[in-house]
Amino acid sequence: MPVITLPYRYLEELVGSDRATILARLPMFGADIERTENDHADVEFFANRPDLYSTEGVARALRGFMGIETGLPTYPVKRSGITFTVDPGLKNIRPYLGSAVIRNVSLDEESIVSLMGLQEALHWAVGRGRGKVAIGIHNLDPIIPPFHYLAADPSRSFIPLDFTRPMTLREILEEHPKGREYAHLVKDFPRYPLIVDAHNQVLSFPPIINGELTRVTTATRNLLLDTTGTDLRAVMTAVNIICTAFAEAGATIESVTIDDVEVPSLAPSTRRISTAACTNLLGLSLTGEEIASHLRSMRYGATASGTDEVVVQIPCYRADIMHDWDIYEDVAIAYGYERIVPALPPTSTIGSEHPVSRLLNAVRSIMTGLGSLEMMPFTLTNERVLFTSLQRERDPGVLPLMHPISEEHTVVRTAILPLLLEELTLNVHRALPQRLFAVGDVVEECVTHQTVAAVSMHSEANFSELYATMDALCRDLSLSYQVAVSEDPAFIEGRRGDILVNGKRAGVFGEIHPSVLLAFGLEQPVAALELDLRAVPGYPGRQDTP
Fold first, then answer.
1. pLDDT score of 533 more than 90
2. DSSP bridge partners of 202
3. I need a surface site. Which of 94, 158, 458, 460 has the fewest CB within 10 A?
4. Which residues, listed in sequence order, are joined to residue 419 by a DSSP beta bridge?
5. Residue 540 and residue 142: Cα distance in Å, rounded?
6. Maximum C-alpha span of the chain
């Protein structure tokens, strides 16, 4: 989770309170103070609250939490008259753009540090290392609108930030420190993203580096924000957070027209929550008006409506609000966790190990004894990893998420093997051989059951190796099986076999197909197996477990 540096002088100025009071209240707000120094504190915030990744955002939240200024903050947006065009050639490269004009900025060293820290924290939390979102902040004064977001030839040149000579886009990827760090995001495309002004002056080479022409200093008064990426929701989240942080510091926000669409709006969204559901979940006796008052302390707009409803206005920067429970959590924070009286549960029971857990532990013992290292991949993944990359048909029983927070986590896994191949991708820099396994839940047709998968990656990984592993696993599980010719496209034809138990397919093993290896960026042979544990004699789980 990100650790944010909060300068005392600047924080006290924005909050309107003294250092001691602020430091005493911060932990009650859900923050962890890592260290305190003479002039600043380093504070860790949850990854789901990117609006708190700047001194301005923290100050705004604290003013409400401490009762200094409550209710919904409003951010008027005027039209700047500035326009942006987006090249259709960027559709398959980096298609989305967000922007804003920020005027009347007053920057000192502390506010610049806060701004740069917010930018880098958003690159990590929202942008996934700039892959999903990259942010550029420019001095507006030396450049001339309208602006253009182009798919440029790699031979195009400009002077990048912190350099004094022009470099081509290709040279920047090879020689500039930021270019080398983020080259993997664009290097495989025939053309690269570029932002230029009306006079063809380069502002930015997203997601790599800005131009020296638009360097921001303490003398800068007017800014142009560009936010590019592969996910529109994430792009606009970053725009909203940055614009509102500047507004908290006294700047004015103006919208930009991008291909006839005016952005940003900075308007709140509205949700209606149940008073009864909130009090039942928290175990507190609160009226609708009390809930509304606590929410106003957390910088929402909130009004009790009727006997069992509160109308809530959610600030534009609160991208973490996915459902009502997120709002109930803020009610608890405002009420004060320290005020909640601990109580023993009304019933007392003696726990015991679930039979399914005993089976999984037995599988773990067998696989570790065979020399494999256990992994614990995520339960959530996406259809590209599960099906497309493995050349498999989409499973009609796949369970999608209603409100995915990321394009990487949109469905519940139906198999574990694809996630182990992802683990190999993340560990290609590690020594070979790599022998990994994972065991756990998968979900098909809304029914949960357990599977085990294993992979072996090294120069001589082959069918025979995983046949031996599969045979040992089945023998130790007292599982009688037969092997039949497999048609699974994830494996090489003639080097794959289905595991049959009582005449039914219970798993597969063999050598992974080269096309699958290429899709995961793997350069070494990989042999793999996966087995449905429902085939094990005496499987303890119900076959219809939801």
1. yes
2. 196
3. 460
4. none
5. 71
6. 78
